Write the structure tokens for this entry.
Amino acid sequence: MFLILFKIMKKDFSAIKRKGFSLIEALLGLAIFSVIAVTLYSTFWSGIQIDQRLEDRIYRQASWALEGMARELQNATIYDFSSSYPDINGFLGEKERIRFLVTTDEGIKVVQYYLEKEEEIFIHKVIIGKRSRKSISVTERRQEALVQEVLIREEQDLVDFINKSKDRSLKEVVCFNVEEQGLKFSYAFLESSENDSQLAWKDVWENNYVPAGIRVELKIVDSQTRSPLVIRRSIYVPAGFWGEEVL
């Protein structure tokens, strides 16, 4: 009895083994696999496109901010306050802040650029400009950014600035997603010796006039990947002066 049952089971198994998959079953399996593969690829590609669009938006915003800053510096107004207001400088150049004068249709304005933490400011306006990559070099580096700040453009009437009326100034956010202490200015000096002169860049400008060369470094960071981009811009002011130091 057991021998007969074993022979029947062996015969049925051999028949199934010889039969394999039918053409319809193979096509159905291939169709299911294709649907799954296309779905996974679409999801993956959509994620890449979203990250790329976000990074491009952050880069464009930073480029517009530097372009606007460069345009204003190249047209900065030179004004000497030494005779009437000896304590006021027409230009202030620090490592993390810059202040200068510009002439507008509404008169002379005092313009400043610096960083602030986003929660500490009241936003009046966000500037949108044109994209420009002229004189800009980009370097990518991997680093964990702990705190993000925003780049501020502050504008004030010259009279209000002289009278120290800070409440009448206008603050504008020109760039978000800036790494903490991610703004750096440096100023061009001509260092002269007996044999030759060479150009040097320093963090502080203590002269009352506008420098002929200014470098700006802005570190922006993607809030999701926390991958910073360093954007550098060299600005040359036609009406500026070269700082001179004798070695």
Remarks:
- The two ends are 112 Å apart (CA to CA).
- The first helix runs from residue 2 to 19.
- The chain is about 30% helix and 35% strand.
